[in-house]
């Protein structure tokens, strides 16, 4: 049976994934499904770099603004919603284009991973709240050496979740990978480190200039509706964490910008490490004009075969 085609545009932050996805959607009759772990949240717009309507070029974008930021959103929820959207897009005879930098979410779809259904353990989470990442890693190492070796050791939330699963099931189960009736083409965008650093700083300053601080203030002091607590903003990470610290006077503006810029760069390095593991990704440099022709040829061949 011929498999349905799904295109994936991935890469580090500030590599131009969203704009490329829009151009490809116009050229190849596609619709875009976001793979961003924070753009799923409503009202988190400037801080997450969410593509605005004017930039979408009339192309439908899915999996943006699907849940309140007060609630938590898991990879299991993402997988369920994305699989439904892929099916919907294909039924309209359009090309599904998954676009984003959340490698965990993308892998869940591309490899059709079935995750263990373990509910959150709030008592455990409360107990581990004050522990450092190093302390949590020691606990995980003792409980499950295999999971310790594969986990993102900078991601405290994911480490707590792994401990939660081990304590519930006795060990971390092997992820079940099922075959889907889909064929994926993964296109990765990457810049050299110096260029990427420059783009990260430039983009951060631009977002600060168009109201990122005001957005954070409004989230905590909304004119109507439930406010987003400082604690929850810090949990959301990166921009919202450092904006929350600044608005609580725990950092001055200069410190906030410097620390946030550094945190985004470290996040970009973690993205690179994650994506390097997948040898199926076809890499391109968005700063080279000839790369666009190579991308178009690759997609044409993919869709024709």
From TrEMBL:
Q: Which InterPro entries match?
A: Dimethylallyltransferase, IPT, P-loop_NTPase
Stated EC number for the protein is: 2.5.1.75
The site annotation (Interaction with substrate tRNA) covers 125
Binding-site residues, substrate: 13-18
Region entry Interaction with substrate tRNA: which residue ranges? 36-39
Which GO biological process categories is it annotated with? tRNA modification
Catalytically driven reaction(s): adenosine(37) in tRNA + dimethylallyl diphosphate = N(6)-dimethylallyladenosine(37) in tRNA + diphosphate
State the protein's purpose: Catalyzes the transfer of a dimethylallyl group onto the adenine at position 37 in tRNAs that read codons beginning with uridine, leading to the formation of N6-(dimethylallyl)adenosine (i(6)A).
UniProt name for this protein:
tRNA dimethylallyltransferase
By which gene is this protein encoded?
miaA
């Amino acid at each position: 049976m011929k498999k349905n085609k799904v295109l994936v545009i991935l890469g580090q932050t500030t590599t131009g994934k969203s704009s490329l996805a829009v151009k490809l959607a116009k050229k190849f009759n596609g619709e875009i499904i976001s793979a961003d772990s924070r753009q799923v949240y409503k009202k988190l717009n400037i801080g997450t770099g969410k593509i605005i309507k004017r930039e979408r070029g009339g192309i439908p974008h899915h999996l943006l603004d699907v849940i309140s930021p007060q609630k938590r959103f898991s990879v299991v929820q993402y997988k369920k919603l994305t699989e439904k959207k892929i099916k919907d897009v294909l039924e309209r005879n359009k090309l599904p284009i998954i676009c984003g930098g959340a490698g965990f979410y993308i892998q869940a779809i591309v490899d059709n991973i079935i995750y263990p259904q373990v509910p959150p353990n709030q008592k455990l989470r409360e107990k581990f709240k004050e522990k450092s990442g190093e302390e949590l890693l020691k606990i995980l190492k003792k409980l499950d050496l295999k999971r310790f070796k594969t986990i993102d050791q900078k991601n405290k939330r994911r480490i707590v979740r792994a401990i939660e699963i081990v304590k519930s099931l006795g060990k971390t189960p092997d992820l079940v990978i099922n075959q889907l009736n889909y064929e994926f083409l993964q296109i990765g965008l990457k810049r050299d480190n110096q260029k990427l650093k420059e783009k990260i700083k430039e983009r951060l300053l631009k977002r600060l200039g168009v109201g990122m601080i005001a957005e954070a203030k409004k989230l905590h002091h909304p004119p109507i509706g439930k406010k987003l607590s400082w604690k929850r903003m810090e949990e959301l990470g990166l921009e919202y964490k450092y904006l929350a610290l600044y608005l609580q006077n725990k950092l001055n503006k200069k410190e906030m910008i410097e620390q946030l810029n550094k945190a985004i760069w470290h996040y970009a390095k973690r993205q690179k490490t994650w994506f390097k593991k997948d040898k199926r990704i076809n890499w391109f440099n968005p700063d080279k004009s000839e790369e666009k022709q190579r991308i178009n040829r690759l997609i044409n061949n993919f869709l024709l075969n």
